[in-house]
């Protein structure tokens, strides 16, 4: 048994943990869980826990359904909302086939493969996510509409507002689980909040996001609220994004930093940005995976709709934040299209591979966008060579189908499942008769 596994068994004994939940996600990023008694954990470390993979979205076909959960002991934490009486722990799992080989359909394994590719080039990949979400009242109004918990706006301090206490309690629980928080505040929409997590390696960041979404929903329910990570839950107000600040490191050195470069960006960083911009359209069905995602991207509220980059330009898809003097480790780029409903393992994997493609193939970075891109006309954007992101899930899937990069990153089975699932989602969405149509055309 490895030392880290022995440490987990000791922690469980000392805390009198009653159950251990083994966490993993399906291909769509939905959290899955199975609880085991701590006495089973030593066997789980040694042999894994078998389950029917065909019952989980995208993991396996019926005729090859046996899969194994392998707990990652380094991810063990007690769940702070379950410690009142019987403490409960959790660990993320890697999925394997019965022969011990990594399951090609495990989203965590998809990201691990991309990180292995980066490591072979000498890089580690770090991410700092800014996660937005809405807090809603538990019941709808008389007209059936969802109701935000407040009518506040960006950075507003709501006197006696539930948001302030909510964010404080959520952050206390996150930090109790070893997830460091940089800042939190009210966002631009009524009931909209943002909590920013500190920069960590990409696999830990993805695990943290899955924990974050679960924890926020748990805290909200305990505060008599509902939390949603839907990209655009309310028409006419800003959607929720998950801006991702990204950097590559070579050992302890930030590979994105060059004191002599424009905006202190290295050639590596410029090629990485060029890779992301080159492949942005074909990645959209992964980074923005739902029909609702495109209502955020094309619904205003500072959502990025056009494929360009800029220094401190919030209308650009990729933003280069202001560099902090004497802090080369803070050099980074910000990808602004991700939304909080993404499967973070798949989303980070395609972003990383797109950036690495730019580095390996020497992509040249186009001139930056200095104007407010939203304010330009279509003709002006064409002259500047600024294409748009897909305007719907349907067009995003069409772009993804042509992508060798996304296919290679996800692997054949995940690639085919995502396409089939998203085509089905689009067809089901098209079949709906909406309230808008009834109001406009019923009479």
TrEMBL record:
Keywords: ATP-binding, Ligase, Magnesium, Metal-binding, Nucleotide-binding. InterPro entries: Gln_synt_N (IPR008147), Gln_synt_N_sf (IPR036651), Gln_synth/guanido_kin_cat_dom (IPR014746), Gln_synth_cat_dom (IPR008146), Gln_synth_gly_rich_site (IPR027303). GO terms for molecular function: ATP binding; glutamine synthetase activity; metal ion binding. Residues 15-100 form the GS beta-grasp domain. It comes from the Bacteria. Gene3D superfamilies: Glutamine synthetase, N-terminal domain, Glutamine synthetase/guanido kinase, catalytic domain. One of its GO terms (biological process) is glutamine biosynthetic process. Its cofactor is Mg(2+). The keyword Magnesium applies. Residues 107-443 form the GS catalytic domain. The keyword tRNA processing does not apply. Coiled coil: none annotated. Belongs to the glutamine synthetase family. PANTHER family: GAMMA-GLUTAMYLPOLYAMINE SYNTHETASE GLNA2, GAMMA-GLUTAMYLPUTRESCINE SYNTHETASE. This is Glutamine synthetase, type I. It comes from Winkia neuii BV029A5.
